[in-house]
Amino acid sequence: MFCAGADLAEARQGLSSDGPREIVRLQRQIATLPKPVVVELAGPVRAGGLGLVGAADIVIAADSVTFALTEVRLGLAPSAISLSLLPRLAPRAAADIFLSGRTFDAAEAAAIGLVTRCVPDDELAAAVAEALTDLVKGSPQGLAETKRLLTSDLVSRIDRDGEQAAQRSAALFASPEAQRAMQAFLDRR
């Protein structure tokens, strides 16, 4: 598992806005680092984990990796992580995966702009090494300034909408409908 997002057992006991604020802060930190952030995906990515993927600069996924935004099935919305996801995705693709909560594969993730590319599982390490080799050829200033160009809209969106998204997320987690859905999910384990 790359990342499953919020701990539902913890969220079931009441989630303050600190958790969503932290995911907003982390997305901003990834986007504003002066060096490119490369993500190697070798396991499932769910819910909040997609926000980390969305904030990264280069994402290389093994073919076997699956993704899902399951929030809608729990009475939630991907509020905080939408900050980094919506700029990466085609609007129709975003509507599909946000509203359905369905699981999709790495090839589809690449096609809709969530990941940079997908490769056969046994070629993942080599593909990441190749990407890193290419990046180290860039000068620190060139990389930082180019990254700033590429992420300026994303950072502006986080700065403009981050607090509201965190508050909305916290309110949804605290809602009676989400609390019942999270308990039902946990009881099925």
UniProtKB/TrEMBL annotation:
CDD domains: crotonase-like (cd06558). InterPro entries: ClpP/crotonase-like_dom_sf, Enoyl-CoA_hydra/iso, Enoyl-CoA_hydra_C, Enoyl-CoA_Hydratase/Isomerase. Belongs to the enoyl-CoA hydratase/isomerase family. Pfam families: ECH_1 (PF00378). This is Enoyl-CoA hydratase/isomerase family protein.
